[in-house]
Amino acid sequence: MVTAPDRLLRRLEWRLGRRLDGRLQGAYRTVWHGTGLDFTDLRSYTPEDDVRHIDWNVTARLDEPHVRQYTEDREMTAWFVIDRSASMRFGGHEGKQSVAGELAISLARLVAQGGNRVGAVLFDNSDKKVIPPRGGRDQILRIARELTSSPAGAQARSSGDVTDLSEMLRLAATTTSRRRSLIFVMSDFIGDPGWERPLAMLTHRHEVVVIRVVDPAELELPDLGLVLVEDAETGEQILVDTSDPLLRSRLAEQVGAREDTLAAAMRKAGVRPHRVTTDQDLLAVLIDMVRRSGR
Fold it and tell me: Which stretch of 85-89, 217-221, 241-245, 287-291 has the lowest confidence by average pLDDT?
C-alpha cells in the first residue's frame, strides 16, 4: 500500500530530477577547514589555533606566525529545524507548514543523494520531536511521515502561549552539539522576541541556512470587507473591516516596522535569510537557492 508520504516523496523526486538535472554535479566538499589532506590556504595565527598547524617555514620568512588550512573531505550531516507552531498552519497552499514540509523533504532528498545523513527537529511549544540523523530513502520517508501528520494537540484550543523560538533554537543547538552540521531553520519567526542570540550561537558552530516562510496576506491585508480575524498563536479574535483605508494604512505601517525589526535581528544573528511565500513555485525557490549557494 502506497502511503501519502510515499506519494509526496515520489512526486517531489520526479520534479527534482526533471528540474535540477545537470545543476548538481560532483561530490560534496565541506565548506569548513580542518585537518584534511588538501592544502587550501595560509592565515595569521590566533591564540585559539592548534600549534601543530603552524607553518614554520612561512613563519620564519614573514617573521609572523602563520597556520596552514586544509579542506576536510567527509560526509555531511544536515538537520532540519522546523517550526510547527499554530501560526505556521496559516496561509495558502495548505498553510506555511505544508510549504516548509515540502521544501524540507526536497532538500533532504538532495542532501541524502550523496550518501549524507539527515535528521530533523520538529518544534511546537507543546510537542517537540527529534529524529536522529540517518541516511537512505527510508529516513526521508520517516521525516515525510512526521511532517505530513498533525502535531500533538494541533486541533486543541490555543493555550495563549506565543511560540518560544529561543527554546526551539536552543533545542537545536543541544541536539546537534556532537559535530558540526549543515542546519536548515524553517519558520515564520512569529513568536517571542530574543531569538537572535540563540540563532547566533547556532551559526557560531554550524553552517546555518535560515528559510523564512510567509503568506502574502501577512504582508498586505486583502480587501475582503468585514471579517472575523483570529490570532493563530493566542486564539484572540477580533472583527475588522478590511476595506477601511485607515486600518489598511496602519497595518501597512506595522508590517513595515515588523519587517525592519526582523531584518535587524537577522543581521545581529549574522544570517541572511531566504524568504519563501506560500504562492511561490517551490522548485523554482529550490533552484534559486542552489544557484546562489553554488553547492
Answer: 287-291
Per CATH, which fold does 4-18+75-214+271-293 belong to? Rossmann fold (3.40.50)
Q: How remote is the C-alpha of 291 from its chain's centroid?
A: 17
- Put simply, whether the predicted model's pTM sits higher than 0.85 gets the answer no
| Closest to 290 in 3D by CA, of 234, 200, 209 | 209
How many angstroms separate the first and last alpha carbons of the chain?
A: 36
pLDDT digits (tens, 9 = 90+) for 120-179: 999 988 889 999 999 988 999 999 999 888 766 554 444 557 889 999 999 999 999 888
Q: 109: which 3 cell numbers?
A: 532528498
What the block records as the C-alpha cell of 264 is 535587524
The residues with which 34 forms a beta bridge, in sequence order, are 70
Q: Rounded to the nearest 5 degrees, what angle is found at the Cα of 291, between the Cα atoms of 288 and 293? A: 105
Alpha helices in 20-130 (DSSP H): 56-62, 96-112
User: Where exactly does CATH 3.40.50.410 map onto the chain?
Assistant: 4-18+75-214+271-293
